[in-house]
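Working notes for the structural subgroup meeting. M.R. asked for a predicted model of this chain before we commit to crystallization trials. I am recording the input and output together here so anyone reviewing the notebook later can reproduce the run.

Input as submitted:
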Amino acid sequence: MRDHPHEGAAAPGADAGTDGSTDGGTDGTGRPAGPGRVPGGSYAEIPEVWHGSATNRIQWLLAGIGAACLALGIELAVDSSWTSGLAPLVMAVVGCVAAGLLVLFGTLAFVHVAVRVDKDCLEVRCGHIGVPRRRIPLDTVVGAEFAPQVTPRHWGGWGYRWRPDQGTAVVVRRGEAVVLRLGDGRTFTITVDDAEDAVRAVRGRLRPRKGSPAGA
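Returned structure, recorded in token form:
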């Protein structure tokens, strides 16, 4: 008697990837199945619009410190007897209010980040009011990479960062991130949850460039 293969078993030589695509296979038209592409040529696992976010609740503590500085400045302005001289009091009030506003904006603006990827661009909105915001057209992106561990120490702190040797980053918490390689040689890093899905969403929308596959 001849042995029959089990139902559902993979055909010899077929190397199925963990995301359901066939690594190194074709899409049914003879073209290689690229990142996120499944047989048939469709991007079934890549949504039309990808949404992601990241939050750092520790930033609320720093926001409380900023609010306390602001409240102290207001209290000095309202309750002070003004007997110690006008100039020192004005300096104290302005210093407390300015420090409070700076800390409040610097923390509340980066307590949350939202990322949106569509067919044309990747958009980053910081804070719950979406400011600051950056929009990166995908035709200026040459590649996307997954970074498993990004920390504020790598970038010199939280928030919107720039370093001449690393590029630009939006860092709201430590952990996974997306690193975009731009056509001008710079990079843009965003800490966001499900960063691997974001990388697939970007790579699946990149146009192949001459001499290299998309997303490479």
